[in-house]
Amino acid sequence: MTDVEALRMAISGTQLRLRRNLREVTVITIVGLLVIPWLTNNDFLLNTFIFIFLFSMMGHGWNIIGGYAGQISLGHAIMFAAGAYTTAILYVYYGVTPIVGIWVGGLVAALAGVMLGLATFHLRYHYFAMATLAAALVIRVVFFRWDWVGGATGIEYPFDQFATLYSLTFRGKMPYYYLTGAFALGVTLLVTILDRSKLGTYLKAIKMDEENAKNTGLDTYRYKMYAMGLSSLITGLAGGLYAQYTMYIDPWSTLRLLQNIDIIMVAIIGGVGTVLGPVVGSMLFIPVREYTRTALGGEYTGIDWVLFGLVLLFISLYRPGGLLNRYSGRWGKE
After folding, report:
1. Where are the domains of the chain?
2. What share of the chain is helix, strand, coil (3-state, %, to 5)?
3. What are the pLDDT digits (tens) for 238-280?
4. Distance between CA atoms of residues 97 and 222, nearest Å
5. How many CA atoms lie less than 13 Å away from 160 in the CB half-sphere?
6. Are 116 and 135 in contact (CB under 8 A)?
7. Exposed, middle or buried: residue 198 (CB in 10 Å: 0-12, 13-18, 19+)?
8. pTM of the complete model
9. Angle subtended by helix axes 277-295 and 257-270, to nearest 10
């Protein structure tokens, strides 16, 4: 056996052990999350975990188009709002149970994402990012002035069917915890499958060198549309779950400019183009956001964003690929 072969075997063994350890940590984490609501009745803690699950989903959604395909979208708040508003409108205006409405909202968000892709995918690099941001700002203004969707007042859920299975609303936070957690786990498993699939490989090729991928015969436009549709579907599902949890939506909460940044932050912190990146990012970003916003409220409002700016600066300098970038294969950097 040559030294090169021995080195390759050693690296392969190290990678295998890392993946095995990550699987064990993942299983332990899931089991721990299942029992947390039975160990505490702290509503603030459960609320934090619910938002961790929601942002994990949104981070996964953005990561498919931004991390895997390399198309930096700054307009994913559109799809989040599409899912939230569709779910709320179907229930409040037409009496359609959110059990159905959440999935319809996801499909509407996917359609919105595809339409956004049709309008912007001919642009490249920062021009694409600027176009998606402009679209989000335009939609925000429209929703503020659109009476049918409640305008600036928004849409509030009625309380006459509160805490029923049909309305998919609950009195405590535990059911929301398990509902959003189940969706987040399902999305993570879906992204794991995507990462191993041909589509995942094609998207990585597009991110690496779109022109070269196109020259090899890959229909880059079609696969970017696939990625945008799936990305938007996941983000829309998160929007529908958010509407169910808050029972009130408006443009301030769903289409604010920083919503686009929040979605991206969880993927950047954890590691773009990785399976667990959005999960790790949300588990770091959301608790810090919630606790700093609570502890530093009032006259210290905005300090939390100063802290996040410092965190992003540190990551940019020392972990430009995110916290998981030192792992290889599907868990880390390509």
Report:
1. 1-39, 46-257
2. 75, 0, 20
3. 999 999 999 999 999 899 887 888 888 888 888 888 888 899 8
4. 34
5. 4
6. yes
7. exposed
8. 0.86
9. 130
